[in-house]
């Protein structure tokens, strides 16, 4: 309940200091970047969907919107991971080419605070690769899930394997995004 009250107060012009509206700025300070937090929440949703895929009885016929919802959540995280990986990749390329905007962002984000620029670029490169690796795993999970749903080709095996791959890929996104 206190968290809900804090969220409500944040978006409804709460001013602890006269004349200064905070909005969601304190959440951004705590979480770093709101898009990263949303990416992590989507990854947690994929983890839950992966557990559902593993524990589901695949002998029963598929009814309802469950499989379509799971496929939609996996696809959403897949697109988000591609977008974030591509964003990091473009930043690294432009920084190495000497783009002014990339240098300004780099100095604001981490160079002034956390040490050696070469180490930070190496970490960002690893993060971009992890996002692209998670994208490949999520794509494989989506294909396996479609195989289980549409083709009904060994649905227990392909559905469970899709669950395992999606949990692993979502864990990768959580470890990089958080």
Shape: flat
N/C terminus separation: 24 Å
Helix-strand category: mainly alpha
Biggest sheet overview? none
Question: Poorly predicted ranges (pLDDT <50, ≥5 residues)?
Answer: none
What is the total tally of β strands?
0
Keywords: Membrane, Transmembrane, Transmembrane helix
Transmembrane segments: 34-54, 66-86, 130-151
Blueprint (SSEs and pairs):
Elements: H1 2-11, H2 25-31, H3 34-55, H4 66-97, H5 100-111, H6 117-151, H7 155-177
Helix pairs in contact: 3-4, 3-7, 4-5, 4-6, 6-7
Keywords: Membrane, Transmembrane, Transmembrane helix
Transmembrane segments: 34-54, 66-86, 130-151
Annotation keywords:
mainly alpha, 7 helices, 79% helix, single chain, 178 residues, flat, 2 domains
What can you see in these coordinates?
By secondary structure, this protein is mostly helical. The protein has 2 domains: 1-31, no CATH class; 33-177, no CATH class. It has 7 helices and no strands. It has helices at 2-11, 25-31, 34-55, 66-97, 100-111, 117-151, 155-177. The two termini are 24 Å apart. The mean pLDDT is 78. The chain crosses the membrane at residues 34-54, 66-86, 130-151. Keywords: Membrane, Transmembrane, Transmembrane helix.
């Amino acid at each position: 309940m206190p968290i809900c009250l804090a969220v409500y107060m944040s978006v409804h012009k709460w001013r602890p200091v006269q004349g200064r509206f905070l909005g969601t700025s304190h959440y951004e300070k705590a979480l770093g970047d709101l898009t990263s937090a949303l990416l992590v929440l989507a990854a947690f949703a994929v983890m839950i969907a992966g557990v559902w895929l593993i524990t589901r009885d695949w002998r029963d016929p598929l009814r309802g919107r469950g499989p379509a919802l799971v496929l939609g959540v996996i696809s959403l995280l897949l697109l988000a991971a591609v977008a974030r990986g591509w964003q990091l990749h473009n930043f690294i390329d432009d920084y190495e080419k000497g783009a002014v905007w990339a240098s300004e962002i780099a100095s604001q984000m981490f160079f002034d605070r956390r040490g050696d620029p070469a180490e930070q670029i190496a970490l960002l490169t690893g993060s971009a690769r992890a996002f692209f690796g998670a994208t490949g795993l999520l794509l494989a999970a989506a294909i396996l899930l479609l195989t289980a749903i549409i083709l009904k080709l060994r649905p227990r095996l392909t559905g469970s394997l899709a669950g395992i791959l999606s949990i692993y890929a979502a864990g990768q996104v959580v470890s990089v995004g958080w």
